[in-house]
Amino acid sequence: MVKDLYPCIIGGEKVFSSDGRSFKDINPANTGDVLAEFPMLAREDVARAITAAREAQAKWASTPVPERGRILVRAAQIMENELEELTRILTREEGKTLTESRTEVSRAVSIFRFYGVMGYRLRGEFTVSAEPNTHLFTMREPLGVISIITPWNFPIAIPSWKMAPALICGNTVVFKPASYTPLIGYKIVEALHAAGLPPGVVNFVTGSGASLGAEMIGSREVDAISFTGSLEVGEEIKRMAGTRNLRIQLELGGKNPAVVLDDADLGRAVEMVVRGAFGLTGQACTATSRAIVLDSVADEFTGKLVERVKRIKVGNGLAEGVEMGPVVGEKEMNKILDYIRVGVEEGAKLILGGGRLSGPEHSTGYFVEPTIFTDVTPDMRIAQEEIFGPVLAIMRATSFDEAIELANKIEYGLSASLFTRSLPRAFEFINRVQAGVVKINKPTTGLEPHVPFGGYKKSSYGMIREQGEAALDFYTKIKTVYLGY
To answer: Any bridge partners for residue 260, and if so which?
Structure first.
């Protein structure tokens, strides 16, 4: 057996691939740093995991909701006790800076605490009946078995905000993390079991998305799918689910604008756009990928922005003072570099960055320079397609109305920011922009766990929001009761 070969968990038991196949979990800042290896399970292994979840579901659903909540709270405490260890694992595995990783782990802790407390607040509604001697009320019931498929860019926060509400509602889970980041996902499951979660309630599987996903989506024993990832994969999941009576939640990305008006505090706008565009190496579905700036302040804003971005220290997230880490993998790096080449070919002006960093500090990892384009027009691919990397397109607008038109002129609608001192303009933007998350004088990135999250248009499918109490709507079905006496 390979040293540091971690198991999958099915029905509470450790499981390895029957043919011994595994894959390596590699640090994108230093490809010689192998964190662990995980099994390459087969489709039949996932079928076993689904069966284990089905067998455990009735007993878990009958567990009093406050007790389910206490397990989630205990898991949160376990993760909080291991905060620094989990932070370093996340940085080595995904590439984030230590500050970014610590923030994400803390967010996962808060998510489990929030839904743990919901164990005392999971309720239906009592309604006065039009009939005499009748009580009329609703109850929430679990859906059953949930397939949860998560991406690599927030590999502890996103699984947490899917699993925690699913579990508090009485569902059982088959969880597949991204193959770039399985270890931090394993640590969530480990914390849940240490907190007292019964066997089979959460089943952890790793391997090829194409092979495992087919069973997680196609099995008749699965009642719902929650997926976060690319638009292309989301469209394929919709196709595979077909006409089955299957509840589907798909969060599929964004092309998020930051609109800068002529009355904005430009210093603050620059800092917030830098955080949104280059924080997390631009690898966030809510990342700022377009800065739409009014003509009268565009030159000044661009000058200040370039000077600030030049000071960003790029390197291994474990190092002191690093503000931006690597891209997660070679495939993703090459995709970003291809988009930069396309931007130049389409006529956009590359004013900063544009290449792979290869000096002594960067030769062992996947580092891309923070990149800025100007002279970007709405018809260009870099203005329309999600790049998912540290690339910012600056677009000019002649008026507030044109800025909103440009912001909306895409197929995505996830997050949008406005920078202004005008309260009327702020509210007009809130009302007119086509985005599920709207920020005023704040970066497009950054979410709080107790409010709904999701997008418009192709950013989200299913329109039932994640996070907050709204997430409970996806993981439950409503029963209406007429009680005559």
So the answer is: 293, 419
Alpha-carbon gap, residue 366 to 28, rounded angstroms: 6
169 is an active site residue: no
Looking at the domain 8-252+459-484, which fold is it? Answer: Aldehyde Dehydrogenase; Chain A, domain 1 (3.40.605)
Q: Which of 49, 169, 285, 407 is catalytic?
A: 285
Quote the crossing angle between the two packed helices 423-432 and 400-408, to the nearest 10°. Answer: 30
- The pairing of strands 172-176 and 202-204 is parallel
Interatomic CA distance for residues 143 and 275, integer angstroms: 39
- Residue 427 has which token pair? 């509210």
Fold of 256-440: Aldehyde Dehydrogenase; Chain A, domain 2 (3.40.309)
Using CA atoms, how far apart are residues 206 and 9, in angstroms rounded to an integer? 10
- Six token digits for residue 263: 């009355």
Q: Where are the domains of the chain?
A: 8-252+459-484, 256-440
- Summarised one tens digit per residue, pLDDT across range 359-378 is 899 999 999 999 999 999 99
Split at pLDDT 50, 70, 90, the class of 211 is confident
**What tens digit of pLDDT does each residue of 285-301 get?**
999 999 999 999 999 99
Q: Is the pLDDT of residue 1 over 70?
A: no
Residue type, 418: L
Whether 431 and 460 have beta carbons less than 8 Å apart is answered as no
